[in-house]
Amino acid sequence: MAKKDAIFDYAAAFDTGPYLTEIGTNWTSNTSNVKNVRMDAHWRGDPSDVSIAVRAGWEAGKFKCLDLYDIAIDAVPGGSFQSMSHNLLYDLKVAFNLPNQYNKATWDDNYTRDVGESHTLWWRAANTPAEPMKMSDQSTGSILNGGGDNNAIKCSLHIPISGFTYYGVNDNTASYTVWPTSTNMSTMNTHYTSLEDADTAAASWSNPTKVGSEFTQSSDLCLVNYQNYWQQSPTPTQDTNALMLCISYTTHTYAQIKALMDAAIA
Predict the structure, then answer these.
(1) How many CB atoms are located within 10 Å of the residue 123 CB?
(2) What is d(CA 65, CA 34) in angstroms, rounded to the nearest whole number?
(3) What is the pTM of this model?
(4) Which of 108, 111, 173, 245 is most buried, judged by most C-beta within 10 A?
(5) Residue 259 CB contacts under 8 Å (≥ 6 apart), including other chains
(6) 61 band by pLDDT with thresholds 50, 70 and 90
(7) Contact 148, 232 (CB under 8 A)
(8) Whole-number Å distance between alpha carbons of 11 and 153
(9) Residue 198 sits in which domain range?
């Protein structure tokens, strides 16, 4: 499989810059609605499994999320929304012809989303040990899924907001590593179970054995295939709090979303 089958950079087609500062404000203004997330359980593809012991370094408070349901959307004069997060979501759907577009006249006062989608701000604390490879398991349910169903996320549009200067580019440019032909969830679970059984601290976790090619991509707007192994590139060490918006799909594959986006900007 080629790199484009696992990740694709759309930064040249849409400027997220004008949205970033106010999306950061959305986060800080809604801290009462922010939830801690057990991300270390997600590596195993089963975020509901609370029997997994918390890894040292990935304790509660290291990873947090804010669902767009919990941010006020009220319309303001000029036809935009009170929430810049919702503005960006709306504008991206129009620009890339993404599924489930909204009637602005009704959506502006009553935020809704279709089952099979997740619209979430994700936050990671500075100096948190790197996240290992992950993917969506098609049999055990969701990973990183706040979208209202129990199915696995197939792909996600990643929009870094702030805190990514440690990659050496811009505050909103993240880096990703993908293994397009590594797709075996059982292999992944077996590897991580062995690390758990050995009580391995987060900073010492390793990835499963790679199958096939490896690619990296720096981007401030990219589509990521969750049906193969992927991770935020683990080096250099993250030394800042990082915030990202993800628009994710359980009902559409990476190839389906990519085809829509490519056609929209052709």
Answers:
(1) 19
(2) 6
(3) 0.93
(4) 245
(5) none
(6) very high
(7) no
(8) 22
(9) 3-265
The tally of domains found in the chain comes to 1
Please give, one letter per residue, the 3-state secondary structure of the chain.
CCHHHCEEECHHHCCCHHHHHHHHHHHHHCHHHCEECCHHHHCCCCCCCCCCCCCCCCCCCCEEEEEHHHCCCCEECCCEECCHHHHHHHHHHHHHCCCCCCCHHHHCCCCCCCCCEEEEEEEECCCCCCCCCECCCCCCCCCCCCCCCCCCCCEEEEEEEECCHHHCCCCCCEEEEEECCCCCHHHHHHHHHHHHHCCCCHHHCCCCCCCCCCEEEEECCEEEECCCEEEECCCCCCCCCEEEEEEEECCCCHHHHHHHHHHHHC
Position 152 scores a pLDDT of: 81
Between 16 and 116, name the one with better pLDDT: 16
- Angle at which helix 84-96 crosses helix 254-265, to 10 degrees, equals 80
Dist CA 142 CA 121 (whole Å): 17
Phi, psi of 194 (to 5 degrees): -65, -35
Q: Do 27 and 121 meet the contact criterion of CB atoms below 8 Å apart? A: yes
Q: What is the reported pLDDT for 45?
A: 58
* pLDDT exceeds cutoff 50 at 126: yes
pLDDT in the model for residue 139: 43
CATH number of 30's domain: 2.60.120
Compute the distance between CA of residue 232 and CA of residue 140 in angstroms, rounded to an integer: 23
Amino acid at 162: S
